[in-house]
Amino acid sequence: MTKSNTSPLSGTRDFLAIDVLKRAYVIKTIERVYQGFGFEPLETPAIERLETLLGKYGEEGDQLIFRIMKRGEKLTRVVESQPTEDRLADSGLRYDLTVPLARVAAEYQARLPRYFKRYQIQPVFRADRPAKGRFREFIQCDLDVVGSTCMTVEAEVLNAAAEVLNRLGFEGTSSFTIRLNHRAVLRSLMHVAGIDSQLEESALVAVDKLDKIGLDAVHAELIERGVPRASAAQLINRLKEAPEENAEMLGWLRALLTSSAEGLKGVADLENVLRYASSGAAAPHLRIDPYLARGLSYYTGPIFEVAVENYSGSVGGGGRYDDLIGMFSGRKIPACGFSLGLERILLIMEEQALFPTQLAGQPQVLLTLFDEETIPAVLELATRLRQSGIRVDVYPEPAKYGKQFKYADQRSIRWAVLMSPRELESGSLVVKDLVSGDQQEVEIGSVPEWLAERVI
Amino acid sequence: MTKSNTSPLSGTRDFLAIDVLKRAYVIKTIERVYQGFGFEPLETPAIERLETLLGKYGEEGDQLIFRIMKRGEKLTRVVESQPTEDRLADSGLRYDLTVPLARVAAEYQARLPRYFKRYQIQPVFRADRPAKGRFREFIQCDLDVVGSTCMTVEAEVLNAAAEVLNRLGFEGTSSFTIRLNHRAVLRSLMHVAGIDSQLEESALVAVDKLDKIGLDAVHAELIERGVPRASAAQLINRLKEAPEENAEMLGWLRALLTSSAEGLKGVADLENVLRYASSGAAAPHLRIDPYLARGLSYYTGPIFEVAVENYSGSVGGGGRYDDLIGMFSGRKIPACGFSLGLERILLIMEEQALFPTQLAGQPQVLLTLFDEETIPAVLELATRLRQSGIRVDVYPEPAKYGKQFKYADQRSIRWAVLMSPRELESGSLVVKDLVSGDQQEVEIGSVPEWLAERVI
Domains in chain A: how many in total? Predict the structure, then answer.
């Protein structure tokens, strides 16, 4: 036996009890809300065909895919001829949940309902350089509606996301804003500022950095990217004069884009999103931001991003992408989705102390073991307590009480039951509150009831 | 856009809604029971260091590990020199949950409680040849207690496993038996039959097949493996005369093994397991079977296996393995565990119709959309229904009712709400029971209450 490196691989994490329970608390909340909105769950394998994964995430993305090596003879043949990265591997690890969704939408077309409203909460894998808050294995929580172009979809998706944050306790100093924009509006704004359609994509990359680098730097970058000075100035100045309030903003945009049918359609979409979402959890948080860009180039309609007060970055985002889900089906399938950033949410909840003090799943009572003779009686009591719905740990072997209380403390168990042969004979046990130190005699038959009243 | 192969990779599976919900139902039951027994959850990464995985599962196991390729320069260097399987890869996929447990026990020694009672429910990956019921990615459900040699551990582990099966509805034609044996008893039985200790391991392999090939074939195989004819005959004859009932069996074993201190210790252990477990769910199912072998060579004490009536194979098994968990710590750490076979359990539950008719998580009500004008009112009703805890799907766009009912049917939604402008004006909606075809007018304000009474 030799000491080995037993830390988890760089960029991956072990989750001990308290972390698993905290993560499960958030995930269960997400699931419950998403199910409440009529979404159904989907799970796909961690391992996908390499051909399914490659070419979907850009060149940089392809490099971040974990490739799984061929085995046996297949591998030998490749090694003996001309081994290349792609020839050595035959499969890879799931990189996101959108490509699997597209694959599933193609594969089960005939079995899936006309509108496929699914959520998927599973780990994804990226061979990225590990950094603070960036992991090589992390959970994605995706919510998507496949099959409809109606803005009810956007409204429902946004209301579901906002409802999750509400249920998790995001309010006060950690309240949130949902920034809402539309790709057509953004494009038309560039167009009316005189930016050539060939420069649009490039200009969008600059505008996308607004949050991080500020107005002046975006202005400079636009010019650097070849946008004419006049156009860049016009775009930036417009931004400065845009009104705050949503209804005013819609009017302002409509006036500005009056010459662009595409732009006006975008404004109408946004108006419908606001109108349809008005009774739901998202309503008070929605703010139209005509310069929200979101990096991913596959968006085609409304886009959104959730920011939490006093925190930079976002806890989630999404939008409409009508050209992506059909990638395996060979036909155009509209879709709109939202992805919650679980790791960011956990981080903020930790800092803002948003977790319940007692997490569901933690043991509530420790039955101590005085000696061997009493073991059957103690285990019988354990059975009865568990039948009353109490989570009961039994110290596995007789030991000094001090040792057993220390163990209870390590496991954050508040109540300890003491049961010596003398106590068994008297028909009364001692229950000790390890927080206050108080202890009380309780008649053995009423212990389950006595504890049930106190542990919840 | 071209048609690609969109089926999941051979040996892996996609799980659509109903399958996810069924699996979640079983997993939640397992979790709740294990937490009730004071166990804490653990989650480890899917990707482990190759050095952590290799050499732990025998030569055959090593071949079944999915290896992840190095990337970038590291890969180039290997490819350009002498590429070998091990040099091309730097990590691999989790093969089981026991090695990660051992790694975690070593890594977090100082933080973990004195006795580490953990469960872990996560997928494992094996590059096995796919076959019926054998997958390359499948969930393992492990329960282990690390740190104690006391038989309370075996009793608790067995009671927890049996409680899971009880809660899942295993009874009647799908009731179960927990076969219980002890490695020391098995070894001593061989010893008193005159089987040389060097032949023990090999003889064990033969005995392990008893279930599958029967007495005579085991007899023949023992001789084939070099066991003297007299010894083989004695071992087989003993088996024939062994009593059925547990207490008699213990007496019979004690008499037989009277000359073997090791054997008697084993019998005493088994007696304690029975005594300690007597008040729990396992008690009526436990049956001592002195020829249960269980393949894995790492067991050191009691071993057990759960068989379901009318089904061959097992739905779970485990035992004590006092020499394994210390593999990374460089010291001996006792442990005992149990692994439930989720896939087998699901299969039997399906065949025996043990799932609840309405699985938690399915949508309960569909709000139909009559026209665009009514969308805000419909979505407002959706919000109110969800606030009452009802799971509500909204048809995403206006369409003929027939289409919308068909969609509800595809999603197994029983209740549909109809809301035209005329109905909105009248203040009463129509709720349709899609199973019976009945429909009823309900005053709009009382719809949540009306439906809440019916959907649960």
Answer: 2
Which positions in chain A touch B21 (Cβ < 8 Å)? Answer: 41
Cβ proximity of A41 and A97 under 8 Å: no
Kindly report the CA angle at B417 between B412 and B419, in degrees rounded to 5? 150
Q: How far is B317 from chain A (nearest CA, A)?
A: 21
CB contact under 8 A, A12 and B75: no
Q: Are residues A336 and A379 in the same domain?
A: no
Q: Do A45 and B14 touch (CB under 8 A)?
A: yes
Q: Is B9's CB within 8 Å of A111's CB? A: no
Closest CA to A334 of A150, A159, A188, A186: A150
Distance from CA of A203 to the nearest CA of B (A): 28
* Mean pLDDT for back-to-back runs of 10 residues, chain A (456 residues): 82 97 97 98 97 90 94 88 85 96 95 96 96 93 98 98 97 91 94 90 86 89 94 90 94 96 97 97 96 83 95 93 90 96 95 92 96 96 96 97 96 95 93 96 96 90
pTM of the predicted model, to two decimals?
A: 0.95
Contacts of B38 in chain A (CB under 8 A): 363, 366, 391-394
Q: How far apart are CA B331 and CA B147, in angstroms?
A: 12
Cβ-Cβ contacts under 8 Å for A331 (sequence gap 6 or more) = B1
CATH of the domain at B127: 3.30.930.10
**Selected residues 6-25 of chain A with any CB under 8 Å from a CB in chain B:** 6-9, 12-17, 19-21, 23-24
Q: B269 lies in which domain range?
A: 17-46+94-351
With contacts defined as CB-CB under 8 Å, which chain B residues touch A389? 36
Of A327, A351, A375, which marks where a domain is finished?
A351
Q: Does B106 touch chain A (CB under 8 A)?
A: yes
Beta strands A428-433 and A415-418 are antiparallel
Q: Are the C-beta atoms of residues B74 and B296 closer than 8 Å to each other?
A: no
Measured CA to CA, the distance from residue B37 to residue B59 in angstroms comes to: 36
CB-CB neighbours of A224 under 10 Å = 11
- For residue A65, what are its two tokens? 């895919």
Nearest CA-CA distance, residue B177 and chain A, Å: 20
How would you classify residue B254: left for phi > 0, otherwise alpha for psi between -120 and 50, otherwise beta?
Answer: alpha
Inspect the interface and report whether the beta carbons of A83 and B79 lie closer than 8 Å.
Answer: yes
A297 and A427 both lie in a single domain: no
CA count, 13 A, side-chain hemisphere, B367: 33
Given the structure tokens 């109108």, which residue do they identify? A275
Outline where DSSP puts E strands in B284-327. 286-288, 302-308, 316-320
